[in-house]
Amino acid sequence: MINNNILLIPLDDRPCNYDFPIKLAKIADCNLIIPDKNLLGNIFRVGNRKKIYKFIESNFKICSSVIISFDTLLYGGLVPSRRNYDTFEEIKSFLSIINEIKNYNKKIKIYANTTIMRISNNNYNEEEKEYWKDYGKEIYKLSYFLHKNKIINQNNYENFSIEEYSDKIPRKIINDYFKGRLKNFFINKEIINLAINKKIDFLSISCDDSGKYGFNVLEKKILKEYCKNFKNIIIYPGADEALLILLTRFINHKGKIKPKFFTLFDCRTKKDKTITIYEGVSIKNTLKSQLKVIGGKIVNDINKCDIVLYFHLLNKSQEDQYLNSIYKKKSYELSTKFIKNEIENIENITKLKDLAIVDIAYANGADKKFTECLLKKINPLNFISYSAWNTAGNTIGTIISHSSIAKFNNKNKLINLEFLIERFLDDYLYQSKLRLEYAKKYLYPISESKLEELKSYFIKESNKFIDNISKNNKLKIKIKKVEFPWNRLFEINVQVIVQYSKKQI
Fold first, then answer.
1. For the packed helices 49-59 and 96-104, what is the interaxial angle rounded to 10 degrees?
2. Do 61 and 201 fall within a single domain?
3. What is the pLDDT of residue 218?
4. How far apart are the C-alpha atoms of 220 and 225, rounded to whole Å?
5. What is the CA radius of gyration of the chain?
């Protein structure tokens, strides 16, 4: 018999990786067994891998499923995976827990995720090794050049001598970087072998901040070829949504649910072919890959779908509005007339179908103009889900997970409303309004005093937003927590409590 216990090892301690899964598990009335945040990695520390290993060992026997981020188990988190100096054998030793679980009980489902190491086109070392502040852009350019010009390829990658091409980068630094990449690459091959041998029931491999050319893109191509004959392995762009959709996979599998989605774009163009900036592939491909993970599918008839996904996009290529703010560049805006036509269409569909808003006009936050027009016409709680954060892959993964669980496993309706309201407060109010204001005004990195000021400002604006929702929906909504988990502008943790008002009861 499948019980409700799920053991989950997050990617790191950020809200999207820690709090989102907890909330969705509660909506579905699943018991999520998850390590304390203090054991996990972040921008300041490496996760305690020995204690995390012990945590899995102590808890897996009472669970139906174990969902693991290998970046945490093997390296101590996503950021530490880029800074790691352990040997290949030291890292590989942590994989032994997989055999331990399967040797105890083959029926325990193991779902896992690993990432292909990103390569950032900047000189910020906040999430990289120290030398990235001086040579990040040059390493990116070299990676792009070597791959685009086929100097490095699938046949020579594993034995490539990179120092011959590093005129602008000290040999010691480029050798260290490439050696670290290859180590992660070979570890990913070991993980794939576990999935090939059915020790891992389903493996997703995420390409973090991918593009058209580069070492990471080449690694993706090599690994795709390596595992192409195995249906329990998938490679797609993303990272922070990965465990959320693996959790949804288990919940859907347990309930024998196969959600059907209908996709809707504005009528002028075939926008599912749009290639988003941090994925390097079309929206259609990103969605298709993530739906495969949760066991869902696209249907071509709106009358036969369970959920409508409305994709809000620009009528040009996607922009990163957060970076635009930092560099004092104005973001492109859609016309008010165009947005009003969109909202009229959305309003008509919400009367007939459960509709989720997938706002990926920009990377890093909602389209403020669109969302403000939307909220003037439609009660936000009329949507089954809403998401507009970070990359298109992150947003799409959150939407399909939340909407699937909200549709078929909404056993805690108030918690479901909490998650929905939190998405509007975070993705719209914070990311597309307040964060951009502060990014424009203050130099990076922002001071702690300015973060405290922003926190007060956010609470004030959030209370205005939720007061309006409370009145219109006969609910009592209170802010439970607001914090900046990594002491920076980029992410915020906002949690609310929703109760029925006395009149509603």
1. 10
2. yes
3. 95
4. 9
5. 22
Among 56-60, 88-92, 270-274, the range scoring the smallest mean pLDDT is 270-274
Q: What is the enclosing helix (H) or strand (E) of 300?
A: none
Question: 3-class DSSP state for residue 276?
Answer: coil
Neighbours of 8 (CB within 10 A): 26
- Which domain range does residue 409 map to? 260-439
Contact in structure between 75 and 91 (CB atoms under 8 Å): yes
User: What tens digit of pLDDT does each residue of 35-82 get?
Assistant: 999 999 999 999 999 999 999 999 999 999 999 999 999 999 999 999
Give CA–CA dist 300/260, Å, rounded: 10
In a domain, 58, yes or no: yes
Q: At which of 212, 231, 254 does a domain end?
A: 254
Strands across the sheet with 297-298, in order? 297-298, 260-264, 307-312, 355-359, 385-387
CA angle 406, 409, 413 (to 5 degrees): 60
Tell me, yes or no, whether 236 and 221 share the same domain. yes
Who's near 310: CB < 8 A, 6+ residues apart?
264, 346, 349, 355, 356, 357, 358
What six digits make up the tokens of 354? 């459960």
What distance in Å separates the CA atoms of residue 217 and residue 302, rounded to the nearest whole number?
35
**What percent of the chain is modeled with pLDDT above 70?**
97
Instruction: Yes or no: say if 201 and 110 are a contact pair by the CB < 8 Å rule.
Output: yes
Give the sign of the dihedral formed by CA 459, CA 464, CA 467, CA 468: negative
289 with 370, same domain: the answer is yes
Are residues 290 and 191 part of one domain? no
Contact 239, 82 (CB under 8 A): no
Instruction: Take residue 488 and report the two structure tokens written for it.
Output: 């920076």
Residue 73 sits at the vertex; the CA angle it makes with 402 and 47, to the nearest 5 degrees, is: 95
pLDDT tens-digit series, residues 151-205: 999 999 999 999 889 889 999 999 999 999 999 999 999 999 999 999 999 999 9
**pLDDT of residue 362 exceeding 80:** yes
Number of domains in the chain: 2
Q: Are residues 211 and 301 in the same domain?
A: no
The answer on 17 and 94 residing in a single domain is: yes
Close Cβ partners of 100 (under 8 Å, ≥ 6 residues apart): 57
In a domain, 331, yes or no: yes
Q: Which of 186, 208, 209, 190 is nearest to 200 (CA)?
A: 190
Task: Count Cβ neighbours within 10 Å for each residue of 133-167 and write b for 16 or more, e otherwise.
Answer: eebbebbbebbbebbeeeebeeeebeebebeeebe
Type of residue numbered 414: L
Assign 297 to helix, strand or coil: strand
